[in-house]
Amino acid sequence: MNFKNEIKVAPSILSADYADLKNEIEKVKTAGADMLHVDVMDGHFVPNISIGPPVVKSLRKATDMFLDCHLMISNPYDYIDAFASSGADLISFHIESNSDVEKTIEKIISAGVKPALVIKPKTPAEAVFPYLDKLSMVLVMTVEPGFGGQSFMSDMLPKITAIREKANEVNPDLLIQVDGGIVPETARLCVDAGADVLVSGSFIFGATDTKEAIDSLR
Ligand code: DX5
Ligand code: ZN
């Protein structure tokens, strides 16, 4: 997927009806979503538990959409093979996890998957600078990870700009994704700051008109 130059929308299935995922995915695909954001939570790295590789495997069978898997787990390195063989197209993991960042990026690349690194709100932008040349994407969390439906933290905006500026020097193709509290107003702020990919859960899946919701983010 060549995904530079235009704003991408990635609905987070955390806010979808898990018993009706096939229809939920079809709904956002038809409405023009660019990729599917899959939130994986282990109850350790974050207080919540969501889904794992078996669901990714089923999603892979159900759709040709690009699967963007956001691992909110303590030991991502140990699960790269499981997510890759289940059909993930991109794997993002937290710099704050227990895994070695360099080795985990290498493992993702060797598995034929695009690597991305995520930073929580308290982690500075500079933390990802040493890895930018190897990454396809950086995810700047705009809420504390763990739950959908939280309020956007506007003090994350300068981090987006700082990463964009550094990436322009070392890896201009790098995508910057934002996740948490994304609605049309906050989407605009993020795009102006340099974001390319907008994750949105409760806003998209809570909307009565899905296409209108996705268009309004873009
Ligand atoms: C939060 C997750 C998000 C979440 C976003 O930990 O990473 O992807 O689903 O949900 P909203 O868009 O409702 O803030
Ligand atoms: Zn997420």
Explain what you see.
This protein has helices at residues 21-30, 53-62, 80-86, 101-110, 157-170, 184-193, 202-205, 210-217; strands spanning 8-11, 36-41, 67-72, 90-94, 114-119, 137-141, 175-179, 197-200. The relative contact order is 0.17. The protein has 218 residues and is α/β, with parallel strands linked by helices. The chain starts with 7 loop residues before the first strand and ends with a helix. 33% of the residues lie in helices and 19% in strands. The radius of gyration is 16 Å and the shape is globular. The mean pLDDT is 97. The structure holds D-xylitol-5-phosphate (DX5) and zinc ion. Zinc ion binds next to β2.
Topology:
Blueprint: E1 8-11, H1 21-30, E2 36-41, H2 53-62, E3 67-72, H3 80-86, E4 90-94, H4 101-110, E5 114-119, E6 137-141, H5 157-170, E7 175-179, H6 184-193, E8 197-200, H7 202-205, H8 210-217
Parallel strand pairs: 1-8, 2-3, 3-4, 4-5, 5-6, 6-7, 7-8
Brief synopsis:
It contains eight helices and eight strands. By secondary structure, it is of the alpha/beta class.
Key phrases:
alpha/beta, TIM Barrel, eight-stranded parallel β-sheet, 19% strand, binds zinc ion
Number of strand segments:
8
CATH class, named: Alpha Beta
Average of the residue pLDDT scores? 97
Structural Rg? 16 Å
Q: What is the number of helices?
A: 8
> What ligands can be seen in this structure?
D-xylitol-5-phosphate, zinc ion
How many structural domains are formed by the residues? 1
Report strand %: 15-25%
The CATH homologous superfamily corresponds to: Aldolase class I
- Specify the biggest β-sheet: 8 strands, parallel
Residue windows where pLDDT falls under 50 for at least 5 positions: none
CATH architecture: Alpha-Beta Barrel
Shape designation: globular
Query: What's the helix-strand series?
Result: EHEHEHEHEEHEHEHH
Estimated structural class: alpha/beta
CATH topology: TIM Barrel
Bin the helical content: 25-40%
Strand order of the largest sheet: 1-8-7-6-5-4-3-2
